[in-house]
Amino acid sequence: MEVLNNALAAFAAVGEPYTLLLMAVGVAAGLIAGAIPGFTITMAVILTLPFTFGMDAVRGLAVMIGVFVGGLSGGLMSGILTGIPGTPSSVATTFDGFPMARKGRPGLALGIGVWSSFFGGMISALFLMVLAPQLAKIGLEFGPWDYFSLVLFALTIVASLAGDNLIKGIVAGVAGLLIASVGEDEISGLARFTFGIDSMKQGFDFLPVLVGLFAFSQLLSDVRDTKKATRPMVMGEAIRISIEHVAAIKAIVVRWSTLLRSSLIGVFVGILPGAGGTIANILSYDQAKKASKNPEKFGTGVPEGIIAPESSNNAVEGGALITMMALGIPGDIVTAVMLGALLIHNIAPSPTFISTEPVLAYSIMVSFFIALFIMVALQAFCLRVFVQVTRVPMYRVAAVILAYCAIGVFALNNIVFDLWTLLWFGLLGYAMRRYGFPLAPMILGVVLGDNAEVNLIRALASDDNLWLFITRPWSLFFLTIACFSVLFPWYQKVRTTQKWTLIFTPAIPLALSIPMFMMGGWVRPGVAVALIALGALMLWRRHQNDWTLPTEVTPELHES
Amino acid sequence: MSRVNQDIVISLLLMVLSATLFIETFGMQKVHLAIIGAKLWPRIVVIVLFFLSAIYLVQSIRARRPPPEAPFSLMGWLSENRNVIGCFAIYALFLVTLPYLGMLLGGSLFVFATLTLIGKRDLRGYLIHAVVAVVTIGGMWAVFRFGLGVILPEGELLPRW
């Protein structure tokens, strides 16, 4: 009953005409941003944040979710019509979307993409509503030791997704923690690393750091080459297409298993901190191909090749929101920005977030639902407008957005110091991009730095026994996964050549069974037994195959 | 400069940075009665950063050298990064002049200058750039000023609103 009341209150809050109008503007902005190659969804969400300062938390987050949902779907437009994915989350969509469009069915390809996005989002929204409160209940068991280990796990998994640049990823994450420690200490109020500069006592604000590192540096990278910057972002003939809605829905319903599998992959990838749509769309495409009776037809314009990536990349956000709302850990950079938006409104997501801020929590879920309907409506009626916008040269968009970055960042605290912070972090972000350092770990480090410090200090203040980080089950659980995530890039690199990799995946469930046993009760030791059985089964299969190394190389998982 | 050399230089710079910051932590004050000082966390972080940078250095030294590239030329590098350096310089100039020009005028000039740096420099180009600068910055300024109630820097040159 309480859930229903909260959901109704959330519907009332999000359903206000002005909020819906703002959400529609947000979805439209996201669709345009997503359609522009080189202009990522993350950047669109970051740039939306300054507009939300003056709004209440519900409205602000609803707009940001609108931008995100629009952005995910916008990426498919340019991918299907031109073969150039608008966002990394739509890379796999082009594999079959573009061939289908070239075969004379662009309306069907777009329709399948739009409706797969819709259904994938809906499935993940259902998971969000069911799973987030349950996960939050588990989160209530966490002490400061467990939280600290959870933050470490989040940082290591993000760094591990940097692929070959694991060490650079970890360096970036730790540098992010360092940036977060500049300024007055949260606990004692003492200044740190201010070098006698008064303005630095307040530390670096999250927004100028984020905008500088991500948006500013991206825009400058986009205009580096004058030739590329001065030609239209998307070339080609003007189009006149109408989406084939009925045929698209029929095509998806017939292939419901692909939709469900891909959506589940999306939710799962979204729950993992740091992993996002870029991984989900490739992974689900790969799985759809493996599960197909006609895998050789993939790449020629088959509906499954559009359904899988588009449903999974939209399902990612529901998964990422689950982790953010239940544990206060952002699942990706977009949810890190949303977490920043909540902090601006003095709301800190934690396991108690759903119980202390039920209307806001359910508003996030409801906004996600509503944004999907708005996205379908806008795609149906305004497709041509969105495509036309992508014909503007990049340098014009970049110059205007650079100025907008300055205005938006200034609006946060009304101090010029933030504008200088934007410049320095823009330089840093540009240098990091040029020299192969991933940005996501640094951003996560900046967002989670305070959280990590406060929990470490709380843990040490209550007991100076460091073994508690190992002997507390949840802490051990997160540290165990952190270790595996650090080893993952190495495993991925040598899995076809070195024998030890054969025991890597079975070792994960076997190792995780230890903390599950330590948790006590009946259910969790039962899960531990299941994990041991799973690990044993995997080992048995390898034994049956005579411990032969795989020859097939599956796509490497890198988040961009 | 080859990528291997770049990595060695970056890792050394990171090590110097973390060592400097570690020394800086000794200058941090201590609160009486506090069980754990404000310097503990920064120290842990810079120590970890130092060791990671050392690993990065070892990796960079061990890495195989790539095939020789064209010799480094400053002029080549400057011409390659002309737009980026120009944009940063214009942005820095915009910040320095912000107290005098304000956000509306300064922002419009920033957009115009950036567009002109990268785009076409003929009469038509100048006109388009001027219109884009005035319309977009004017529009954004109005949204923030009147829609969101944010007071943006007004500058000394223009009359106060």
Written overview of the protein:
The complex is a heterodimer of chains A (560) and B (161). Chain A is mainly alpha-helical and 560 residues long. The two termini of chain A are 42 Å apart. The model of chain A has no long low-confidence stretch (mean pLDDT 84). Chain A has helices at 2-14, 17-35, 41-48, 57-82, 91-102, 106-139, 144-160, 166-180, 206-222, 226-230, 245-254, 256-271, 277-291, 304-327, 333-344, 353-356, 358-389, 394-413, 417-434, 440-462, 468-471, 473-494, 504-518, 523-544, and strands at 183-184, 191-192. In chain A, α7 packs parallel to α22 (473-494), α9 packs across α19 and α12 packs antiparallel against α13 (277-291). Chain A contains 24 helices and two strands. Chain B has 161 residues and is mainly α. Helix content of chain B is 71%, strand content 0%. Chain B has helices spanning 3-25, 40-62, 74-80, 82-118, 123-147. The radius of gyration of chain B is 24 Å and the shape is flat. At the A-B interface, α8, β2, α10, α18 and α19 of A face α1, α2, α4 and α5 of B.
